[in-house]
Amino acid sequence: MKRLLLFLFFIVLFLVFTIVLTIKQARSISLEKPIIQTSTFSNKIAFTRNADIWLSNFDGSKLEEFYETSLEGGAPTNLIWSPDAKYIAFLYEAYLPLNYPPSKWDNIYLLNVQNKELTQLTHANGYNNALGDVLSWSPDGKLLAALHFEIDKAKKTNSTAYWPEVWTVDGKLVWTLKGSELSKKFIYQNYHVIGWSRDNTSIYLRNSGENVTYKIKIDSSEKPRPITQKDYGDLVSNTISPDGKFSAYEQDGNIWMTNLENGEHVQLTTDGNPVGHGKTYDWIRWSPDSKYVSARFYSNFTAAGALPITDGISIITVDNKEKVDIPFGEHAMLFDYMWSSDSNRIIVNTDEEDIWVFNRKEKTSKKIINDAYWATVAR
Questions:
Q1: Cα torsion at 285, 290, 292, 293 (round to 10°)?
Q2: CA distance linking residue 348 with residue 367, whole number of Å
Q3: What is the 3-state secondary structure (H, E, C) of the chain?
Q4: How confident is the model at residue 307, as a pLDDT?
Q5: Which residues pair with 148 in a beta bridge?
Q6: What is the pLDDT of residues 181-202, one digit of tens each?
Q7: For the chain, N or C: smaller number of CB within 10 Å?
Q8: Which are the contacts of 38, defined by CB distance < 8 A and separation ≥ 6?
Q9: Judging by DSSP bridges, how do beta strands 334-339 and 323-332 pair with one another?
Q10: Does residue 90 have a pLDDT over 80?
């Protein structure tokens, strides 16, 4: 009898020990490996319609008015999703700036898509306005770079001063080139923010006049310097593959690619020509999986200085240089385009205020939404 009781005691003790150990392991797993949830806005298209922000699926379904703006006389423009799909940054552009408070118009705003809370990041007034066409998110989605400008009325030429700024998502200005020692050289130049470093600490500025790209640490502890070949692998931008291995660029109307590890240059297309001499490629974008390079192609301009009539989008497979030309169903001037996160589709916005979807696998293009502009895709 004693042996039986002793046996049962050890059985119970073993079960208790097993249960306690299981609970501890479960708690450890829940603390060390939190569940990662995919954003409900992934691959959602955001765009402006009737001065409000709308959302839809990639096929144009589930169209909804997502955010009704409270200001009159203008509209959100230059919409851009944050990399984590938590925010939409945009410029509130006034149609009639003289009739409305300048402290509200022509400024950069941030819309939290979870609670629809709107934050005004910049507070420009008069001739001090924020340009939204140069908004650029840091890779982690925590910082937003923007190019700021103002008219220097003290100069007889009314020259325009440009400088980059970096903001946090809660509306704090963490860095600006204005007023720094660096601004003496850079403030009156036409610079554009073309990308970020992968560690979120530096921005890259392109000077179209000098044809030079500079890297600037946003803590301003280092002097801006022209980038070298080794910097390209650290740059997050449209022309650098997301894996940091290749850069793509246009030369004499064709698309080329550079291996950033060994410096080898590879010509991806051969049917392009310099502008004005036939088919031409530009506006290069990489797919998120780094397997494809895309570019728009066109042949004719509508008028001198105008946007060209875009014939379609070309997609080149990097490994074998196979190219597919996907034409528009109708002629249009392309404003911008973006890849979907699955690297299978491309969203295109045109001057006709239409949204098109180009399908890489099906090699088709389709208009999905009318009366829409400034489209952006959540990753």
A1: 30
A2: 9
A3: CHHHHHHHHHHHHHHHHHHHHHHHHHHHHHHHCCCCCCCCCCCCEEEEECCEEEEECCCCCCCEEEECCCCCCEEEEEEEECCCCCEEEEEEEECCHHHCCCCCCCEEEEEECCCCEEEECCCCCCCEEEEEEEEEECCCCCEEEEEEEEECCCCCCCCEEEEEEEEECCCCEEEECCCCCCHHHHCCCCEEEEEEECCCCEEEEEECCCCEEEEEECCCCCCCEECCHHHHHHEECCCECCCCCEEEEEECCEEEEEECCCCCEEECCCCCCCCCCCCEEEEEEECCCCCEEEEEEEEEECCCCCCEEEEEEEEEECCCCCEEEEEEEEEECEEEEEECCCCCEEEEEECCCCEEEEECCCCEEEEEECCCEEEEECC
A4: 54
A5: 130, 163
A6: 656 655 555 667 788 999 999 9
A7: N
A8: none
A9: unpaired
A10: yes
Give the containing element (helix H, strand E) for 319: none
What mean pLDDT value characterizes the chain? 76
Per residue in 137-157, pLDDT tens? 999 999 998 877 665 555 544
Which residues are registered as beta bridge partners of 118? 111
Q: 58, 47 in Cβ contact below 8 A?
A: no
Q: Is the dihedral of CA 12, 14, 15, 17 positive or negative?
A: positive
* Distance (Å, whole) CA 236 – CA 203: 9
CA distance 254 to 271: 7
Distance, in Å, from the CA atom of 203 to the CA atom of 146, rounded to the nearest integer, reads: 10
CB 339 within 8 A of CB 43: no
What's CA 341's distance to the chain center, in Å? 12
The values of phi and psi at residue 376, to 5°, are -145, 150
